[in-house]
């Protein structure tokens, strides 16, 4: 049986980020008149991403969180640190461990918002023990990949519609962005083809799969794949789609890690405020690259594996299976994915 404590593979060398500082100074009031959604924004990277984006004067900033009460606490902090008026910050419920919650959130956005300028999919988890969701999926796999992808394709049409809306008074030129938060740890994933698996999704959802030992790294590789594939959908023609490596930060992501691992990771981490600048940059930057991988506030190359023939084969097969799953889960996305 594969080890369950595998969020950081043993062979992965964790870079030292302790001296890292980022110079994030976007155009003031860049988001005036615009609507922004940040998932997982009650704590850690998501909280600081919301603060950074809140400083750019959005008309509405939505904190999409699993626990609304925690989101309300975060709202107070975002308002205080960003200067954005509290009445322009809302807290909406979103639980990525549930496809029904993803569908309900997407339906609420699509039915009640006139536009969507940034969807920053920051929410993610790192499990150090095997956990499954009510939908039957390994928790990291569903939260970091399957639900993240479903939300992205569900809201892509609204992002595309927003790109065609006229500029209102005070607005600056800005293309809608779909930003997916990944991780540099995706480079630690190595694929072991399993001839006995019925499908890739069932293989990666199997506790006894040879691929189960690097589950977190795998989900972050999938985030890169999501950005690349979504960016080539017709509705993404005028939408900037990115996968972002925030870097190792002092955050709540490793709160359930074994003490020694937690200490080792935090000894090489930068403040979460700094890492979130990568996410904010990737959520607003003017980019022409399709599905760009963002690292240190710049477009970078993802892992050699992800660009190799084998990695591209995995990308194509996974995408096909995920599309089938999403259409089965939410038939309305077929129109987006079938174009």
UniProtKB/TrEMBL annotation:
<dbReference type="InterPro" id="IPR036291">
    <property type="entry name" value="NAD(P)-bd_dom_sf"/>
</dbReference>
<protein>
    <submittedName>
        <fullName>Uncharacterized protein</fullName>
    </submittedName>
</protein>
<dbReference type="InterPro" id="IPR002347">
    <property type="entry name" value="SDR_fam"/>
</dbReference>
<keyword id="KW-0560">Oxidoreductase</keyword>
<dbReference type="Pfam" id="PF00106">
    <property type="entry name" value="adh_short"/>
</dbReference>
<dbReference type="GO" id="GO:0016491">
    <property type="term" value="F:oxidoreductase activity"/>
</dbReference>
């Amino acid at each position: 049986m594969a080890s369950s404590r595998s969020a950081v593979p043993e062979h992965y060398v964790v870079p030292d980020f302790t001296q890292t500082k980022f110079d994030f100074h976007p155009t003031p009031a860049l988001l005036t008149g615009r609507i922004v959604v940040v998932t997982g924004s009650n704590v850690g990277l998501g909280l600081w991403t919301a603060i950074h984006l809140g400083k750019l004067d959005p008309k509405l900033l939505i904190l999409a969180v699993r626990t609304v009460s925690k989101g309300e606490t975060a709202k107070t902090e975002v308002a205080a640190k960003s200067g954005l008026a509290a009445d322009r910050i809302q807290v909406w419920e979103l639980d990525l461990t549930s496809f029904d919650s993803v569908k309900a959130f997407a339906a609420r956005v699509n039915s009640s918002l006139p536009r969507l300028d940034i969807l920053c999919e920051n929410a993610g988890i790192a499990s150090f023990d095997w956990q499954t969701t009510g939908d039957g999926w390994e928790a990291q796999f569903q939260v970091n990949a399957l639900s993240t992808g479903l939300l992205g394709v569900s809201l892509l049409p609204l992002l595309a519609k927003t790109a065609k809306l006229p500029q209102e008074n005070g607005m600056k030129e800005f293309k809608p962005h779909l930003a997916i938060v990944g991780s540099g740890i995706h480079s630690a994933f190595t694929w072991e083809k399993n001839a006995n698996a019925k499908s890739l999704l069932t293989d990666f959802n199997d506790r006894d799969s040879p691929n189960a030992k690097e589950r977190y790294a795998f989900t972050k590789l999938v985030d890169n794949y999501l950005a690349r594939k979504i960016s080539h959908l017709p509705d993404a023609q005028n939408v900037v789609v990115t996968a972002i490596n925030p870097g190792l930060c002092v955050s709540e992501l490793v709160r359930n890690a074994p003490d020694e691992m937690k200490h080792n990771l935090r000894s090489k981490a930068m403040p979460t405020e700094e890492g979130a600048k990568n996410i904010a940059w990737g959520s607003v930057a003017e980019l022409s690259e399709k599905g760009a991988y963002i690292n240190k506030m710049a477009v970078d190359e993802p892992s050699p594996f992800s660009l190799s023939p084998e990695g591209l084969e995995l990308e194509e097969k996974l995408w096909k299976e995920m599309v089938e799953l999403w259409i089965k889960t939410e038939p309305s996305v077929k129109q987006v994915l079938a174009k």
